[in-house]
Amino acid sequence: MPPSSTQAEAFEVNFDGIVGPTHNYAGLSFGNVASTEHGGRVSSPRQAALQGLEKAWALHEMGLKQGVIPPQERPHIPTLRTLGFCGTDSEILRQCAQRAPQLLAAVSSASSMWVANACTVSPYADTADGKTHLTPANLLSMFHRSIEPPTTGRVLEAIFSADSFVHHQPLPAAPSFSDEGAANHTRLCADYSQAGVELFVYGDDLSNKAAGPKKYPARQTLPASQAIARSHGLNPDKVVFARQNPDAIDQGVFHNDVIAVGNQDLLFHHEMAFADTQSVYTQLNTALDSELQVIAVPADAVSLEDAVRSYLFNSQLLTVPGQQGALLVVPMECREVPSVHEYLMALESESPLIEKVRFFDLRQSMNNGGGPACLRLRVVMSQQQIAETDANVLLTASLYRQLRHWIESHYRDRLTMNDLQDPNLLDECRTALDELTQLLKIGSVYDFQRT
Ligand code: SUG
Predict the structure, then answer these.
(1) Which of 255, 341, 367, 405 is surrounded by the most beta carbons within 10 Å?
(2) Which domain, by its residues, includes 389?
(3) What domain count does the chain have?
(4) Is position 174 within any domain?
(5) Segment (H or E) for 269
(6) How far, in Å, is the centroid of ligand 1 from the Cα of 138?
């Protein structure tokens, strides 16, 4: 029996990934159209981090609960040592830049900013033991992301340190268990404090290759999602597994959160999101205690291409205290794609389900295929779990000011691929992250702090 705390008030806390100081455009993610298109461009880590922080702060100012998750240590020298480079850190950087520049780019990616891929979270109201379960994603379909899980695990343990959290190991690093975390997982519920329905969307079920994408990789497998549902102790009657539409994957929808988003009992999605939409509705309706509300966007209103270009569905669908309809947080690109802008304006004025649409400039992250929803990890928390959060990660005016100052003092305004071999950049990053761990009170989570 879950403890009685399940009945107490619960909140959705959005934890935003802080963009790391090596944010760059390396074109690393095959199947992610924006990443490929922007490969080799000059980035601005400072602008990227400030854009993300401003979004988090604006949502905090609207009465939402906001947290932050720190970036990872990059360039990641321990990975280069594992891959045979040796000598001092500076020598390793130089050798790698000469012999394997793509490898240097991979171990320098700031991709941990997209914390929707950090882990899968099942809140305490859904689990057999009444605790909140977290499993870091193994992220094995892209090498540059596969090096994230060990640090992710330490960071999550430092932030969610109370006894009411259970931390699992990432799934085995084998293709059959390829897992990309919350980006392919949506929790629907009548109220955050009550048991919800967990929708897991996969691209590959391992048994029927013909039903999968032909051009781009499916980054989530069904066995991975099933393993997580099992180890989190979810009630099988309240779990739905759904296949992603393979044609959508082939058009650049590399995660489900690029084409669908849910909040409470509302599901907002493109009509091409799922392989079998009616079956998804039927299963969700059977599992949910309340009636599923749906906004399905037809392809003749917004083409799949426009959806991917604008990241309309990589939006945050949020319940704002005191508001009837939901808030939809979308990237600025949604204003620039005419079909999407027109659709959103009509939605805002005509649908009682959406009260307000707000546009944010997240261009630095968007150019790598990361919109508002990629940048945040949703954790439903009880008042007690919030009170027991010892790390200084919940946004306040003071933390916001300190983080702004921290970014402005440590981040470069401009970064090229050539800069990644600069030993000064490595030093700057370590100095910045060391300071950040003190500011956030999360202890020594980075390898360079532990050796
Ligand atoms: O895994 N891009 C990320 C974007 C992740 C978006 N997350 C969600 N949809 N939840 C990825 O493809 C690009 C890095 C580069 O090319 O430099 C990158 O890793």
Answers:
(1) 255
(2) 10-74+109-450
(3) 1
(4) yes
(5) strand 266-270
(6) 14
